[in-house]
Request: fold
Amino acid sequence: MVGLIEAAKRLSRLDSNDVFIFVFSRNEVLEFAERLNREQLRTGFDAKGESLKERSDYSPSYRAFKTRRGTPKDIVDLNLTGKFYDSIQAKYEGGNLIIQGDTIKDGQDLRKRWGNQIIGLTNENIEILRQYIIQIVIPDFFRLYLQ
Reply:
């Protein structure tokens, strides 16, 4: 553990990029962002917080299929096989958190029907991620930085 004067010196030299790189190089942060995006989709909302069902509904045959499977048919969740959800990945690049995924399903781009915002976090989920980082990850950074 460093003394108070040394800690103050280290903090004065601290670059915000060091913190961002530390935070977003942690797999648990990226996985948490991915989980938030999947849960958001499961509840039927895009990154703007808009309901996917408002944009377009399932076809009658697909609604019947969902009924037979016992899955909710009143929420457009874009999760039939799970491949789209599995493809969602977060990464830190160029100073930004980027969430991406393979939106091509059966030769068609899901974004054409459901919009360009199907991948990404709502403002509410960004705040949840921010709180996670502040409460869980930042204390780890300072523990390591001030050792």
Summary: The chain has a mean pLDDT of 90. Residues 44 and 75 are 5 Å apart (CA to CA). The radius of gyration is 20 Å. The chain has one domain: 4-145.
